[in-house]
């Protein structure tokens, strides 16, 4: 089984490199860029990501268009300020080879207003 990762971005030149580097293990990386003007697209392309330019008409439309460009068996969705840890990577790669499930919850650490908190977030990891 192969995995696509799509990353939502708009003027995230300072964050996109770390985000992409955290998922270089994926079979396909797509950056869904809403016409950034700060070099985000160029940095993403230099790291091997496929960049698609999508006008921002709400997050639902943006994510749906990004998903329609993914070509692999599974999809992981990230925002440009998120990172995939090695532990999560290893768990994802093991699970997608053997699971009969369609969706996974991934614990996420949030940093908001100077404080860290944990949350369970449904990330869009699902077979096409």
Q: What is the gist of this entry?
A:
The protein has 128 residues and is of the alpha/beta class.
Q: Extract low-pLDDT stretches.
A: none
The helicity comes to 25-40%
| Order of adjacent strands in the largest pleated sheet | 3-2-1-4
Dominant shape = globular
Mean pLDDT: 89
Biggest beta-sheet profile = 4 strands, parallel
**Coarse structural class:** alpha/beta
Q: Write down the domain tally.
A: 1
Give the quaternary arrangement of the chains: single chain
Termini gap: 11 Å
The CATH topology label is Spore Coat Polysaccharide Biosynthesis Protein SpsA, Chain A
What's the count of strands?
A: 6
Quick one: CATH superfamily?
Spore Coat Polysaccharide Biosynthesis Protein SpsA, Chain A
- From the coordinates shown, what is the CATH architecture? Alpha-Beta Complex
Tally of DSSP helical segments: 4
**% residues in beta strands:** 25-35%
Write the layout of secondary structure elements.
Elements: E1 3-9, H1 16-21, E2 28-33, H2 40-46, E3 50-53, H3 59-68, E4 74-79, H4 86-98, E5 104-112, E6 115-123
């Amino acid at each position: 089984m192969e995995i696509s990762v799509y990353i939502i971005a708009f003027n995230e030149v300072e964050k996109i490199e770390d985000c992409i580097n955290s998922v270089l293990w994926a079979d396909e990386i797509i950056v869904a860029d809403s016409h950034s003007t700060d070099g985000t697209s160029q940095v993403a392309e230099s790291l091997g990501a496929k960049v698609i330019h999508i006008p921002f008409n709400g997050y639902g439309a943006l994510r749906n268009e990004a998903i329609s460009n993914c070509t692999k068996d599974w999809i992981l969705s990230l925002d440009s300020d998120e990172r995939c840890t090695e532990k999560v990577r290893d768990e994802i790669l093991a699970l997608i080879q053997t699971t009969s499930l369609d969706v996974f919850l991934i614990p996420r650490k949030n940093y908001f207003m100077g404080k860290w908190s944990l949350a369970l977030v449904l990330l869009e990891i699902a077979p096409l």
